[in-house]
Amino acid sequence: MSEDIAPQKMLMGIPGSPGICIGKAYLVDRENLDVVEKYVLDGGQVAEEVTRFKKAVKQAEDELARLIKRSPKEVGQHIYILEAHKALLKDKMFFGHTVDTIKKAKVNAEWALKTTLDRIRRVFNRVEDDYIRARLDDVVYVYNRVMRNLVGTQDSGIDKIDKRVILVAHDVSPAEASQIQLEWVKGFVTDMGGPTSHTSIIARTLQIPAVLGLENATKKIRTGDLIIVDGAAGAVILNPEEKTLLYYEQTQEIYEAYQARIARKSHFPAKTSDGVLIHVNGNIELLEEVVAALDRGGDGIGLYRTEFLYLNRRILPTEEELFENYKEVVEVMNPRPVTIRTLDVNGDKVAAGIMPDSGDNPALGLRAIRFCLKNPDIFLVQLRAILRASAFGHVRLLFPMISGVDELVQARHLTAQAAQELDRQGLAYDRELEVGAMIEVPSAAIIADMLAEHVDFFSIGTNDLIQYCLAVDRSNKQVAHLFQSLHPAVIRLIKRVADVSKDKGVRLAMCGEMAADPLNTPFLLGMGFDELSMNPQAIPAVKNAVRGLCASDCRNVVNDIMREDTAQAIARLILETYGDALPMEIPRPDSPSVKAGAA
To answer: Which terminus of the chain has fewer Cβ atoms in its 10 Å neighbourhood, N or C?
Structure first.
């Protein structure tokens, strides 16, 4: 290799949006808005400084309003993100705290705003939940927009790009992502962000490859560098060698053809070659995502996370507000089923400031069903809203983080109480409403036979089940490699629940990310799952995988899988047995073509 040609390097980050793109990098430079000077005001300057801050906020509001008006139709369903940013500008925790700091400490607006962000960061950094922690990105975005107005610098101007490039930035805010012109931007790469960030959601909506959380991409990649972005593997290849480039060009062509082919069949039933029908559903967090689930052939909503209406607000949502939201989802999906999961957040994030702190380790603290049983008044409001929505379509009720029978009995008792209250009011609801328990705590899997006496269905939430089973924080890069969905211990827990479901006649579903990977489809079929639920983008590939498999053959291989002692051995067995039947996948990080030169 010539000395003036940089060697191939591979940077590993977090998969943000699947797909492959190849092209020249375009580095979005951004000034460091975290570094600000502090100066003290005299008494007469304080009111003037408060006014200057308020003008910067008003300017940010006007900018967001223009962005909302100009946003392309592809991101129309995610305009709520920009609306949420407008609301944050006037939030007491953001706006009020900054004004108070200017007045009490007699400091400049930039410094007061910086102390506000530092305070909010400390709060969010104590949160274990990935989705809620990712909302810090929204606060940082609002901070940057106001700070730019205070110091008089310009935005990055993504909307002015007029050549085919791959964006490389410290972060791409939702507002910036909404300005992306698909004719010019092939994909993007960021130092910050994660799979649950709003930026990732918009990238998937736009269907452009994205790799997030690389930490140092902006230091290693320069404008004009040739890069390959593998959004499914979370890999960015810098200065690819000719053989790597050729491999990915061929892979990209095959993958895009494959995506087009399965999209045409995504609305057909997912039925195996021997006639077993599997329902493939979508997971959603927001009302606006229902359309994506339908467009990609979802047979229903397998998991409706209901936390969004409780977050970033000073008062709890009313029963009517919850009911209207749930009713709209149910009516759009009718007659398809909608599985509504009850509130699964830490208490300190529900109407922040009202509820007590949930402790130093929220993942093991007062969250989900524990929080709801501790706060029955809050729980009953949501239960009544869900029951009322069930009168307008096919609703299923799902309780999260069940760890024992007593929790399930209490939850069902409160559901019955909510139903009695509706009866007294003469309000309609589905009296045959199906009730399920999420299996995401190892104890629940172990006593599944006991829990089965109290439910109509199980839904295995593999994201938490794997985390609790293996004691691995998947967002921690130091141990993320140990988060293995095919670990023998995880497989055995799942098999335990599957056996109980079959014996007790309880329907079996999976709603964790494990369901979204076609590599797992053969053994899930073999274990007898009735339903698989996933992010809407994964629905076509999983339905296609189901159609290429024989359920009876899959059942025969489960015993072989159970005898393997490592995740790698299980994956190898599945690929050796079903490789030809599984859909073409984007290369994984250990692909021989990208292994060389990993950085």
So the answer is: N
